[in-house]
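Hey,
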Amino acid sequence: MSTSLTQSAIWQELGHHQAEVKAIPLRDLVMNDPRRLEDFQLSLEGLRFNFALNRIVPKTIDLLTQLAAQQKLEFARERMFCGEVINISEGRAALHTALRQKKDRPIKVDGRDIIPDILIARLRLTRFVDEVRNGYWKGASGEAIRHIVNIGIGGSDLGPRLATRALSPFISKLNVHFVANADAFELTNILANIDPAHTLFVVVSKTFTTQETLLNAHMARQWLVNKLGPQAVAQHFVAVSANQAEVEKFGIDVANVFPIWDWVGGRYSLWSAVGLSLALAIGMENFEKMLDGAEAMDEHFCTAPLAKNMPVVMGLLGVWYRNFWATKAQVILPYAERLRDLPRYLQQLEMESNGKTTTQTNQRVDYATAPIIFGECGTVGQHSFHQLLHQGSDVIPADFIGICEDNLNKPQHHQAMLANMVAQAGALAFGRDNATDLHNACAGNRPSNLILLDRLDPFCFGMLLALYEHKVFVEGVVWNINSFDQPGVELGKELARGLEAKEAANTSEKVFLTRLFKTVQTPNIN
């Protein structure tokens, strides 16, 4: 498979089909089909995906699934779930799905079944979570833990941070804080408001060499030592890492190191011990329910026909707009305050996974890949960037995410949120014609998906995240790119390490950057 994708017959047919669909206003597509809401909706155990407000007809889905078949999506899906090496640049499997598998099915990596390792790690996690939550784990002063500080960045922060906020009604006993930025402001504020005797730090880094994480971890360690002495580190620090040697150097007891494996990418790692802070917050029973929800979506993804498969249809619609409508961005609009961090999480999931221009066969693509992901919680975004969504020069497909249950028993607020969500989707789709006052005219014809959760509980939340994981995978397969590496991320890290270490500059670029770094360090302030 190569960049001849754009020359394939099905790609060419989709291009012709787009011109046909473009000639039909979205209003007409919707209003002239009394069964559109039912025919363009897929459901799974408390999650509904409605794609009626898209610029598509039934033939569109048929052609897109033919494209998926041409790109061997089902074969690629099987290879991922079976543990084959699909991250070819790093020579690794991508088995985040194995972390939530509950059925008795061996999965082998390098000839060895990894399921026993996962179960042992989960059992250790369960015991530790129960010890801390029930007050059996004591700090250096003999006091029970009341505060958890998660120190990580990227996938070691975004997933647990999102999930902890999203599932906040299920939090009991412990207060959880998150530190990611190398800017000391975040950690300094947290340390000023917690008691070291009641605090447990969870340092999350697969390599235990991540610069930002180690900066913050060493700062937290020094703070603790200053307050309680060096012997306190063992009782107040645990780690999630694959690099036991570096963890030991830091001073964390090896008995308090939880594993993360090479076959789990950071942005897909919430389901592992990377979710330790979340598990401590909501309890292991609720953490397991989140795994169950993700597994339910995994099963649906593996078994449902392509045209009735939620992640497949969602991913193919992403391809439809990015490649055949030339859209440049995708907006994520959760109409639930507890999902406010979802756009940030999906920025990493989508753009780090599919922000590539090289195919699996080491050729440059001749088509667009990942869109820019941005978003905000409704209704806040309506008073910010929605103006551009409605009247801007770019069409930006939207994902609206809503929660049906009013868990706060505030019907006026809840109805206002749902009404605004539906109204925004309708306004984007149908627009407003005003030939005499163009300032007030809205073109409409702007597509959106509607994702509805019956309730925002651990099970439904697990389904939601797995839905987006598999959607990204589908896009990557169609584009023939590796969704599981991130080499572009490393370049800036390498340059930063060189500047901090004041390495000798041996290229003109490094000479320039070194000079620039010096001016930043010693600015000319009058």
